[in-house]
User: What shape does this take?
Amino acid sequence: MKAFNFVSKISKKGLLIATGLLVVFGSVFAIPTTAVFAASTTPASYAALTKAYQNDQNWFKAQHVNVGRADTVVTQVQALITAAKSDGIPTSGLEAALDVFQAQLRTAKASHATANAVLTAHKGFDNNGNVTNPVPAAQTVKDATQSLTDAHNVLVQSSSDLLTALTLWSAHNHITSSSPVYSAYHQAYQATLALHNDVTGEH
Assistant: This one.
């Protein structure tokens, strides 16, 4: 009976030791595996980030041109308002529409400027647009894309609204090709239409 108890104690002790060893070895071999999965971003996967960064840079350039075109639209519509007033044509509705457009343009310019700051800092990228650190690089792309999108959406909507305002103003005041302000109206309308088309297709 004593022999049996002795063997039983040894077996239990051996089992505990074996279990402990398994836990230790299991932890040791689990660490490299975890590290491998944690570092899943490899240089081969940087291509997507690099392309996204280049796309944002190209988008910024196109949007920068369109922001300048929006300024031209403001000038053309203001010229129309001046011409209409001198001819005794009411312009209150058109002036209100231009005020809204200019306010929206300021919002778009702010988002556009934010995108410029993010792309200029190019955190996570070198000066040639290559990924140097994937984490800040991904954030750079995310922030730039968001700011560009914000500016884009405002420019699309504001140019569409101004086109509608110009059309309604023209119809209400019976602006025809024989009207003294038709040339100014045509220039303002075409400039706004060109802006809207370019902004809509910029990305």
